[in-house]
């Protein structure tokens, strides 16, 4: 039977997707005639002419279309078209015969989307004529005019069986219109076109070719919205003009907007790129907003949203590019997270999920580096459940139909273009070979060009050098988010027997109950009677509070916190870019935070619109929104908006303004424009003007402010700008909702109260830039006393996990009552956001957002145990602990499934260290085997190279002057080295402790000076073993930073001599009990000598306990650095350089990069972006010739060479004057400074964080014979056994830190101290900071809350750092003979609410006054206005 009749055409998708443009009649006719020509004569044939080209493939198996196969037939091709297909078809006499026995003939594949032949961005033609003012809108471009046929790329696609492709422009967010091209060998772009235009293309992720607006995802969505509105507006104006041109001015419309007109008129489809489920939802919303049928390309995570795609009547161009595991070099850490493993396991299932749901889709090669990878990936889709027929349809009929070329392509039917593939085996078979490919009736050359990095596949096409993944069925994957939700509770439940902080009229209730029904608080009281069947939850001994509310958050914002390219970006909406999968949502629930105000960053005087959310983990972005919350917007004053983009750069035009005066001008002019815009809108509505003003999304938002419909939340620091904005708001007739940060709000508290503005501030942040210099921790309390509604916010995903402890600081600094303090993070932020009728307190009728705490919520030692939102349980610590083992097991299973058989993961190690060759002088490496403790072997000292002397003041060997006998009596004495002593006595004389004991056991003579400590506690002064106190003042002001120097090797530098005794940071730290600190340099590989200080003295010599306590080194990096969050999200992208981060311990250690430097999805999925690699990562070859990370020996080579030089110098110095050896004529200060380290008198303080680097550092120090102290050590717990075995002490970096991986437990950073203690590692805790050294006890408290015994936590900031620093004979505990350095407190120093009442250094009272206290006392006494 001959198959010559045309089969029944399947239901056309062109009507529902409008792929056939409904253009005016003349255009339609032209398009139709072009399509007819294409149907009868293929493009290449039109150009070539010449003698007839006839082929006959005889006796082959012929797949006419999916599900329609001739087991034996003949296919005849003539002049570029399919002439005959049939079982009894005869080969013409003039045909070239191909024996088809054992072969199968398929329709040529149609690529649903490709960029082949499109020029690179650098080669793109410049925009000409009247184009849209936003450079990323390039809608006027079209693929035919841009096509530059790439012979090699086209040949590669032909070898893979593709005969036609939809090709779209590449540059711009709106990149222009696509066309279907033949992939034949023609070099004439016009001859390649089969159909044009097909669709307009939109990609939110397309990079800007220049640094200009928009620079963020929210900005790109805003531009999309505005451009489509402009197109609709232009269509209306043009239509009105065409109907009645008389008396009207002809509208001037840009070419870009004219190109978008058919889109908004629904005559041309809009193809939108989206891969993740969240991005797919974003483009579905845009399509719905403008009434467009969604056409989505990419769609990697379509499996997660098939129901939504089906409901939206969407079409999908599904990329066959599947995510691959990261390429992990040998010995490198595998960065894969459980989220990433799940993503890779689920991606192949999208095709089957779409097919099952009935969502039309076609396959594309977009994203594939090699088109031949298409087959292996489709086989993986088939293994994941896609039928073979559906796969073939998605590569042939479906794209032809969806692209409007089903009359020319997609099946083997007479009259269609002669694009065919002839295989030996089934098309998607594992061992199938492609034997012949015809495009436009021309037989393609299947010979692959030679390439050193490619191997020939079974199809003869080039492949990646990596081994193709086997097409096995994907492993089972867990459901739900990571971490998972806890088991649900009943819609009606009661918490029994708790201490309930209602934050309402009932106050704090003891042994009370909270009854919840259907998501609302039904009743609060003692002994509540509830209906039978109500679930009972035992909360005896627990405390219950309302859910905490963060009034300033940047958590869960995708694609950039700032749209920093323009000074006014009111059109941007946080709602568009909420990242509902951000694991920080769960982490904050684990800290009791249930709601947040998501704000735009502070790079703009007028930023984007906010979003008020509840942390409903596992829900979609839309489901996080708090319905009914008043809309708001972010403004910003001060340094950020005035200096954003102000640094001269060749590719960036400096942005106005650069002064606070200019910021005011920008805001005022914006409101003047908004007022005029509003007047025009009113005039149109009243019929006074014939046409409405152009819809302006930016001005729409500002008009809402003028109309009182949108709240203003204004980033601010200084009192002058706060007052300016207050007056400006009053001038334009609106009230400020909140001033955010408002660090000098205490100076204008009366003015804020009178205006009615709320203040959402930091608890105690300061000194990170000059405008924060007068920030004080009393700020919140002072404003509250003057009648301002005050809240404490986080501005940080890490800090948002412990807002309860931030509230406790208002008790410490300002003396608020506990009831008022808890309001700072509950009821008050609810009032500021206009939602206090819903959340913020536990009152009947309010939402059941509540938290169960292990103890007093304002105690540093309490933790969150359960968190409810709307009565649903979203966090349960018990369930979380149980789930960890299940998640780890799943992770191992998925990792094993995606590894090739027989290949095991390489565990992290220190790398192979080979024995070091002897130095050139013939001497061996001394001291091999010594890591810590005494000096190593072979360490002859240089007698005339003394260490610089310690000071003679309070920090040195003797007090500056004799001091009288003093007795501290009546308090509870905590020696640290022994148990507490009730009613104890501490005797001090001449700077030393002479006796410690109970009052009955310690006597002292009459006339002894006494200090009454009744009701107080006596502790040794706290010790921070890693700081930059005295050598860093304001992080953003380079001139105040003396912590680092140029060059890689600076052992001669001494931090001690750069210490400023009058630093304002020192008394602030001292006032919270920190009396000793190691101040350390940070630059280069060898940074210089650190100094141990007593934080009281007239000069640095007075302060120095040991000015050469250790030589600091940043261990050479050999791989990826892990992510950390910078302190304040709103600062990112606001024009800051890393100058203000140089003193940050994370950046100093080299273990972290700023959040703005890494892609959020890369972090979540455990990818290895090049920006996160060490400097030499992409350059150093790996064994086998592949690029990768440097080897250990390569990374250490410069350091080892320097040490060899130092050893030779030492040998020369030791030999001076012996046996006629001449004296060294030139003393080298650098090498001289190395001698104490080489001799073992001074340890190496080595900064390293990653497990691999720590192991390498230990091995290196042992081989070289150095005493080693590990500093920072953020993955020290992973090699704790090694550290304990080698007796390597650890100065652990900050405990108050985010988890180290996206899939790590929420308390990951908090439990590192416990793990070290359990393994027997000697360690202490540190802040690694300068301005925030005063927080040292709170790092210890968090460690104690999460498993470290409280007494060990205290030792970790007293006795243990003294032991590690070699001064335990002088400080660290209260024992006779030690320095009389101690503090008197109201309670346990670990408790934030404890206050230091007195301190002694060297037995003498220490002045606890400081800049903060002085400002507090000054403004507390300001006369009320």
List keywords for this structure.
8-stranded mixed β-sheet, 40 helices, alpha/beta, 20% strand, disordered N terminus, 27% helix
Question: Describe it for me?
Answer:
By secondary structure, this protein is an alpha/beta fold. 27% of the residues lie in helices and 20% in strands. The strands form 10 sheets. Strands 1, 2, 3, 4, 5, 16, 17 and 18 form an 8-stranded mixed sheet that branches. Strands 21, 22, 23, 24, 25, 35, 36 and 37 form an 8-stranded mixed sheet that branches. Strands 38, 39, 40, 41, 42, 53, 54 and 55 form an 8-stranded mixed sheet that branches. Strand 49 (1244-1248), helix 34 and strand 50 form a beta-alpha-beta unit. Helix 11 crosses helix 27 and helix 19 crosses helix 20.
Map the helices and strands.
Blueprint: H1 14-17, H2 25-40, H3 43-48, E1 54-65, E2 68-78, E3 81-86, E4 96-99, E5 104-107, E6 109-114, H4 143-146, H5 151-159, E7 162-167, E8 174-177, E9 179-182, H6 189-192, E10 193-195, E11 200-202, H7 217-243, H8 255-264, E12 270-274, H9 277-289, E13 295-298, H10 306-311, E14 315-319, H11 338-346, H12 350-357, E15 361-364, H13 373-383, H14 388-395, H15 397-402, E16 420-424, E17 433-439, E18 442-443, E19 455-456, E20 462-463, E21 492-501, E22 508-517, E23 520-525, E24 535-538, E25 543-546, E26 548-553, H16 583-589, E27 593-598, E28 606-609, E29 611-614, H17 621-624, E30 632-636, H18 639-643, H19 660-685, H20 697-706, E31 711-716, H21 719-731, E32 738-741, H22 749-755, E33 758-761, H23 779-785, E34 790-792, H24 803-812, H25 818-823, H26 827-832, E35 850-853, E36 864-869, E37 872-876, H27 877-898, E38 966-973, E39 981-989, E40 992-998, E41 1009-1012, E42 1017-1020, E43 1022-1027, H28 1065-1070, E44 1074-1079, E45 1086-1094, H29 1100-1103, E46 1104-1114, E47 1122-1123, H30 1145-1149, E48 1152-1153, H31 1160-1165, H32 1192-1214, ...
Parallel strand pairs: 1-4, 1-5, 6-7, 11-12, 12-13, 13-14, 14-15, 21-24, 21-25, 26-27, 30-31, 31-32, 32-33, 33-34, 38-41, 38-42, 43-44, 46-49, 47-48, 49-50, 50-51, 51-52
Antiparallel strand pairs: 1-2, 2-3, 5-16, 7-9, 8-11, 9-10, 16-17, 17-18, 19-20, 21-22, 22-23, 25-35, 27-29, 28-30, 35-36, 36-37, 38-39, 39-40, 42-53, 44-45, 45-46, 53-54, 54-55
Helix pairs in contact: 7-8, 11-27, 19-20, 32-33
